[in-house]
Specification:
Largest sheet: 7 strands, parallel
Structural class: alpha/beta
Bound molecules: adenosine-5'-diphosphate, zinc ion
Shape: globular
Number of strands: 17
Number of helices: 21
Radius of gyration: 26 Å
GO molecular function: 3'-5' DNA helicase activity; ATP binding; DNA binding; four-way junction helicase activity; hydrolase activity; metal ion binding
Catalytic activity: Couples ATP hydrolysis with the unwinding of duplex DNA by translocating in the 3'-5' direction
Strand content: 15-25%
Distance between the termini: 45 Å
Protein name: DNA helicase RecQ
EC number: 5.6.2.4
Pfam family, one: Helicase_C
Length: 518
């Protein structure tokens, strides 16, 4: 069967070989096993269910949430000579019946179905007569309330599987890989632990950089000017920021467009099209931009603000270099970004459990901005993939790094946190270490602590940076919530006892290089 799968790949899609992971997923599906495939956006999920759909007898139902994408997928399949159709709310009742009747006669290999349809018992009973080989579920994280895009109608998939006379095999796909989401998907759909395939998260052609301590606007303008002929996306946290940056770039003579949820459909559509056709070079956008945009020659993605979690970051940054040519992903970090995200989390109506979860994810994102280690490694490990210690293609691997023994400074920081009874955040701790005479320090009597002023030689900001690096390395944890408190981890007490050194690769002060080598 796998042999046939390769033939279909060549014949219908014109590709010589499967990508890493595709083959093993397809093999399991053809074996009759239920699987969950986790692949990043652009990783090639569609082929994983389309090829088995073509090979298996009967029809495959594809559950997909985006009506606009459905139409594109069907057009592509039809142009390849594959009989496929879709059923969603844009069709009349009689058109739906007509399509299902044709499906009953075995005229389609695939039917794309909007999840909302499954909530209708009448619709489910209409599916009874079909010979369904497989149910493929796109964007499967929508089934999980832990995911970033929970859609209650996805839960109706379980009714679908129950109602069908012969339980078809299930192949679910998502780009989200957090453990909570994965276990939600597998338990809802009854997929075994051994049938979860996580692959292809590494995008070798992308270079990752975190830029700190720069004037963001100057940096952005310089970068955009130096890459004038290239297409790029600049993501900002709020609509207001999008508007401001857009105006700013336009005033500087840059062919920029803007996109956010506050614009009319027409405005957004126009901006999107002008960007796709290279009429505008830089798209300044909120996170509303991107779902379903397939522009392959985006050369850079700049995050003007830190996004809310790694999933969002990797998905947005991953829009660079989809053609396989080099792409750059820059994150312009400032501590203010954390406050914005906390504010946004507090604004939500989430229950306490999920709010805590959002804070946890935000912390992993913050750690990415503070880690002195390889950025690619941080990303891949977050998603559960193996990664070497150095990738050679991120700002941290490319910089001149020096291994420094930070044991003594770390001990000073840990013992100060300890003496302040692990009840305060990094600002106050760094003030005490610096020997600041701030009102709060004096009011609490922290100027009488033995750790007061023992790191005088540093600026408060440098101490905060050090604390952040120690958090990113797991020596210190932060409590969740709006005003996090520093807590020492087991690792820190080993350092305090002199049982373990703190060695870090630190960046030698040097301006980051905005220019690409080519
Ligand atoms: P996803 O749904 O995971 O975002 P797609 O299925 O749309 O990704 O695939 C992304 C792109 O990669 C498409 O242009 C697709 O044709 C291409 N692609 C997928 N599999 C292969 C392969 N084995 N060889 C070459 N290109 C592939
Ligand atoms: Zn690296």
């Amino acid at each position: 069967m796998l042999q046939q799968a390769r033939q279909v790949l060549e014949k219908y899609y014109g590709y010589p070989s499967f990508r890493e992971g595709q083959e093993s997923i397809i093999a399991r599906i053809l074996d009759g096993t239920d699987v969950l495939g986790i692949m990043p956006t652009g990783g090639g999920k569609s082929i994983c269910y389309q090829i088995p759909a073509l090979l298996l007898p009967g029809v495959t139902l594809v559950i997909s949430p985006l009506i606009s994408l459905m139409k594109d997928q069907i057009d592509t399949l039809e142009s390849m000579g594959v009989a496929a159709t879709f059923i969603n709310s844009s069709l009349t009742g009689s058109e739906v019946s007509k399509r299902l009747a044709r499906a009953g006669r075995g005229e389609y290999k695939m039917i794309y179905i909007a999840p909302e349809r499954l909530e209708s018992d009448r619709f489910l009973s209409m599916l009874q007569d079909l010979s369904v080989a497989m149910v493929a579920i796109d964007e499967a994280h929508c089934i999980s309330s832990w995911g970033h895009d929970f859609r209650p109608s996805y839960r109706a998939i379980t009714s679908l599987l129950r109602e069908l006379p012969n339980r078809p095999r299930v192949a679910a796909f998502t780009a989200t890989a957090t453990p909570e989401v994965i276990s939600d998907i597998t338990s809802y759909l009854g997929i075994g632990d051994g049938e979860v395939f996580l692959t292809g998260f590494n995008r070798e052609n992308l270079k990752f950089s975190v830029i700190k301590g720069e004037n963001k606007k100057d940096y952005l303008l310089r970068y955009v000017n130096e890459n004038k002929d290239q297409a790029g996306i600049v993501y900002a946290a709020t609509r207001k920021d999008v508007d401001n940056l857009y105006e700013f770039l336009r005033k500087k003579g840059i062919a920029a467009g803007k996109y956010h949820a506050g614009l009319s459909d027409t405005e957004r559509k126009e901006a999107q099209e002008r960007f796709i056709f290279d009429d505008i070079r830089v798209m300044v956008a909120s996170n509303a931009f991107g779902m379903g945009i397939d522009k392959s020659n985006v050369r850079y993605v700049i995050h003007y603000n830190m996004p809310r979690n790694m999933e969002a970051y990797y998905q947005e940054a991953g829009r660079a270099g989809r053609d396989g040519e080099p792409g750059e992903c820059l994150l312009l970090f400032s501590p203010q970004d954390i406050l914005i995200q906390k504010f946004l989390i507090e604004q939500t109506q989430l229950d306490p459990d999920r709010k805590a979860n959002e804070y946890k994810k935000l912390q992993a994102m913050t750690d990415y901005c503070h880690t002195p280690r390889c950025l690619r490694q941080h990303i891949l490990r977050y998603f559960g993939e193996q990664a070497p210690d150095e990738c050679g293609n991120c700002s941290h691997c490319n910089d001149d790094l020096q291994v420094t023994d930070l044991t003594v400074d770390a001990q000073k920081i840990f013992s100060c946190i300890y003496r302040m009874k692990e009840r305060y955040g990094s600002t106050l701790v760094s003030q005490v270490l610096k020997g600041s005479k701030s009102k709060k320090v004096l009011q609490f009597g922290f100027d009488r602590l033995p750790t007061y002023g023992i790191m005088k030689q540093y600026t408060e900001k440098e101490i905060v940076d050090l604390i952040n690096a120690l958090i990113a390395e797991g020596y210190i944890s932060l409590t969740e919530g709006q005003y996090p408190v520093l807590r020492l981890q087991a690792r820190a007490s080993r350092v305090l006892k002199g049982e373990e050194p703190v060695l870090q690769k630190l960046r030698i002060s040097r301006k980051p290089e905005p220019v690409r080598d080519d």
